[in-house]
Every structure is written in C-alpha cells, then in structure tokens.
Specification:
6 helices; Four Helix Bundle (Hemerythrin (Met), subunit A); 79% helix
C-alpha cells in the first residue's frame, strides 16, 4: 500500500463524519438546539483524527517529501493545502467555542456553530477532492519506490510511537457511532485498514 492510499482511506472516514456534521447542523437549526454530546464527539474527531493524525502526517512527512523533490513550500500545492488546514482549524475552534451555549438553546451560539460547521464542510470536502485527485497523483509521480517505502515506515512510526496505542481505532469507532446516530452510511475504510499499521 502507498502512503497516499492510507491518506485517501482516511479521507473516507473523515467524509463520513462530515456527513454527520451536516445532519447535526441541519437538525440544530431546525430544532433550535444543538445536541451537545455528538457535537463534542465530532469536534474531538476533527481535532485528533482529521487534524493531529491525518493532517499531521501530511504536514510533517508527505509535504516535506514532495518539497524535497522540487515542489515550492511557499506557493506550490503543498502551501495551499497547509493554508486550508489552518482555515479548517479556525472553523473547528469556532464550533468548539459555541457548543456549550448552543446546546443550552442560545440562538446566537447555535448560529455560530452552524456557520462554522458549514464553512468547515465546504472547505474540507473541496480540500479532500484536491488531494485525492491532484496532490496525491503528483506525490505518486514525484516519489520513488524508495521514497514511498520510507514514508510508509514513517507513517507506521507515527501510529505506533507518536500516538497512544489504540488511538486510531478509537476515532474510527467514534466515526461509526456518529454515523449510526445520524443514519449515515459507514465508509468501507472505517471497518478496514485506514492506518499504516494495518488497523
């Protein structure tokens, strides 16, 4: 398996939770109240699985590997991806800050949560498409088999040494709990191999 395939599989799990977030925001606006526990689970997932694990592997390992092959870190595709990651973090912070009040029925906080949720949905769905259909193709063309093997070993180390044991599996389980709660189909990758360790 190539490093980009691992990242693409992770995208399917992230999309699953994005679909849940969309239903969550629609339901909150319709009822005038946000469900606190699922909203907290979603924010936890986006912060730790989508950002710390997934975006972390890209920013710390994949993007520098591509830049070592000549991609510009200042104005190339990896620079655009980093900027979008940062924009996503802003939306996740905005959702997190609004949860408590939105769950208590505060209309302003609920509107802020929904606004950030929808901003994040649009941003990340487009971002995933860019990576799956453009960036990962560029990476596969630029990186040799040896480069890819080294990157795969690095991803494996991230999963086993830099993150607590079972972290990846726990967030896939959260993704599946949210999917079941909101009636969203589970991504095939959510039940199978989504990380470098084969879990």
């Amino acid at each position: 398996m190539k490093p980009t395939e691992i990242l693409s599989n992770e995208h399917r799990v992230i999309e699953q939770v994005l679909d849940c977030l969309e239903k969550m925001a629609d339901r909150a606006r319709a009822t005038g109240r946000l469900q606190k526990a699922p909203a907290q689970q979603a924010v936890d997932f986006f912060r730790n699985f989508a950002d710390r694990c997934h975006h972390g592997k890209e920013e710390t390992h994949l993007f520098p590997a591509m830049e070592a092959k000549g991609f510009s870190a200042d104005c190339g595709p990896t620079a655009v991806m980093r900027l979008e990651h940062e924009q996503g973090r802003g939306h996740v912070r905005g959702m997190a800050e609004a949860i408590e009040a939105a769950a208590s029925g505060d209309a302003g906080a609920l509107e802020r949560f929904v606004r950030h949720a929808r901003g994040y949905l649009g941003l990340l769905r487009e971002h995933i498409q860019k990576e799956d259909h453009c960036l990962f193709t560029m990476a596969n063309q630029a990186l040799s088999e040896q480069d890819q093997a080294a990157l795969l070993a690095t991803f494996h180390r991230v999963e086993h040494e830099e993150m607590a044991a079972g972290t990846h599996e726990r967030y896939v389980e959260i993704a599946n709990q949210l999917a079941d709660h909101y009636g969203v189909a589970r991504a095939p990758a959510a039940a199978g191999a989504v990380c470098a360790c084969g879990h």
